[in-house]
Write a structure and sequence with these properties.
single chain; about 180 residues; eight-stranded mixed β-sheet; three-stranded antiparallel β-sheet; 13 strands; globular
Length: about 180
Amino acid sequence: MSGATVTTVSSNGTYSFTKPNRESITLLAGLGVEGDVHAGVTVKHRSRVAQDPTQPNLRQVHLIQAELFDDVAGAGFEVAPGDLGENVTTRGIDLLALPTGTLLRLGAEAVVEVTGLRNPCAQIDDFRHGLLKQVVGRDENGEIVRKAGIMGVVLTGGEVRPGDPVRAELPTGPHRPLERV
């Protein structure tokens, strides 16, 4: 996992599927990305708020590996960083293979604890028709495979910029595979 970097950072203060790229973002402990519509102690994603607005926000930060964009480009889809609503785009680390509870150190100070997988929704097909099938599939056992990134909560705040290193600290104990959050 050495050599992993942040390639792009994105945020948006209003509900929108995509998020504009920024020169930097500031992560706030216990909240998420400063000024981002999904920041907060309790859930901010509309579907989650409709279910129970008092749920803890396990989706404060959305991370996607840039390698996903390479993969979907091979299937004819042009997707750029921020297009799928992520806050942090990385390269050189297999985010989807990380266990629950992994600590991601982003830049000099920020620490994000991985809580689970993003559950892609039909809005992805509204963005690019047919893209949902590229980011959600089934494995050889028929189990659902989600490829649209991971979610986390901010343990330690700090500024994150493109070019910053990404370091993963695996949790002790048995490996707990990521599940949808």
